[in-house]
Amino acid sequence: MLPIRLGSCNQFFRSPPGLPNVGSFGAVRATGHRYRQQALNPTAKLAASFTTSTIKFSSATFEWKLDAFKNLKPNKYKSELFWTSERHPWRLSFYPYGDPNIKDSDYVSFYLESEYNDAFQQIHFKRKDVMFELYSRVREVEERQVVKCRTFVKENRSCGWSQFQSRRRLVDALKTDEDPILLKAVIQIPNVEISILAPNPYSEAVTANFLQNCKHSDVVFRVDGRDIFAHGGLLAARSKHFAALLSDGKKETADSVPTGKAVIVVTDGNHEAFLLMLRYLYTGSLDFRGCPEVKAVDLFKVADKYNVGSLRDTMEDCIIDNLTVESVVPILFDFAYKYTSLRKTCLKFIGDNFEAVRKTGALNELESNPRGWEVYSGLMREIAEHVSTGRANN
After folding, report:
1. Which residue intervals define the domain MATH in the entry (predicted)?
2. Confidence band of 216 (pLDDT split at 50, 70, 90)
3. Residues 6+ away with beta carbon under 8 Å from 53
């Protein structure tokens, strides 16, 4: 009978960069089911009246095969990236001789890792209340372990088991030195519609052959003194702002060059952020690996300026997902106060975590060097109100 163990992860760690991908990435599939939960009706007064609410789970299964298990080296092996939504890339990692941080070679180690959306580890989205199981099989020997609820955040991106299964038991099951090990993850996230996505195979081709292609472009954006070649028709179709900017009535915004291309000078832009925004408009992809380094804050600002709503909202969620007691005050006073929803979220975060925020010293630094007295005094007053409200509720 296949053993099942429930519980929390016993090991979290950050993945060291630059390790090679090894192994074949097998079948990928998604299923959906519904979990019915009994909830007490809050309007019931005398009788205990119950209503039924529905929590929808989506399930995704990922399989990964490593050939010749017996010949694997005492290294960390990483699967290819796989995606459960446009925001959420994942990876499996496997140690055939155990996690070196634990130093127990009698077991194999197996982890599920939430990955960054870029190579510079700037963009990461929280995965909340994830239930998942990890599974391995060599011949007839199987192991399955389950985590019932886990939130993946930037500081703790990995979850799994340093002692997932006895290595000796797996080796004894081998019939030949070429026998593989099959590894599998099943991921369930409540109230999130999972769509199985590999990185869009056309993204790189579109970017290489259209964006930044001088030959076929008809508009040039000059940002930080550098030119970005693009296509007005595509941008107009994807963005009302660019449609207005490039329309006949807006010709005064662009200069003409001998080649017939319109040149639009962006005077207060970030070149890398502007380029990634255009790439998003071309591909619809949040896979920014292989792109220049850009912070979520810079992408949020440029997407807001050019009214690319889907990218702006996504980057706002990314900023909120990664708020910490150390970062929330600088973020609020630097730029978030200008945006209603970000302002409210930062103020609530400070109110809910005031003692921890106060101990960082960030508020004291602002007091000695406020960024504009009106902004400073208004925000400090709102912080005091949120702190008072939080204490009253407690």
Report:
1. 59-187
2. confident
3. 37, 39
**Which single residue is written with the structure tokens 């400090």?**
380
User: Could you tell me how far CA 153 lies from the centroid of its own chain?
Assistant: 9
Strands (E), 193-237: 219-223, 226-230
The residue ranges of DSSP E strands in the chain, in sequence order, are: 4-6, 24-40, 50-66, 77-78, 82-83, 89-95, 107-114, 127-138, 141-152, 158-166, 181-190, 219-223, 226-230, 255-256, 262-266
CB 77 within 8 A of CB 95: yes
Q: What are phi and psi of 270, to 5 degrees?
A: -100, 120
Amino acid letter, 62: F
In this structure, the chain runs to a length of 394
- Give per-residue burial for 280-303: e unless 16+ CB within 10 Å, then b: bbbbebbbbeebeebbbbbbbbbb
Q: State how far the alpha carbon of 121 is from the alpha carbons of 212, 275, 294, in Å.
A: 25, 18, 10
Please choose, from the candidates 106, 99, 108, the residue with its C-alpha nearest in 3D space to the C-alpha of residue 16. Answer: 99
pLDDT tens digit sequence for 244-267 = 888 753 443 455 555 578 889 988
In our burial notation (b when 16+ CB lie closer than 10 A, e otherwise), range 355-367 reads eebeebebbeebe
pLDDT by residue (tens digit) across 139-171? 999 999 999 999 999 999 999 999 999 999 999
What is the largest distance, in Å, between two alpha-carbon atoms of the chain?
Answer: 81
List of residues 6+ apart from 113 with CB closer than 8 A:
15, 90, 91, 92, 93, 157, 158
Q: What does the block give as tokens for 215? A: 């030959």
Which residue's entry shows tokens 């960082």? Answer: 360
**155 Cα distance to chain centroid:** 12
Nearest to 289 by CA among 175, 129, 130, 123: 123
How far, rounded to the nearest angstrom, does the alpha carbon of residue 108 sit from its chain's CA centroid? 28
- 10 Å Cβ neighbour count for 373? 8
Q: How many CB atoms lie within 10 A of CB 228?
A: 21
Could you identify the residue written with the tokens 């040039």? 220
- Is-contact 180 65, C-beta < 8 A? yes
List, in sequence order, every residue forming a beta bridge with 190; answer none if it has no partner: 57
Pairing of strands 219-223, 262-266: parallel
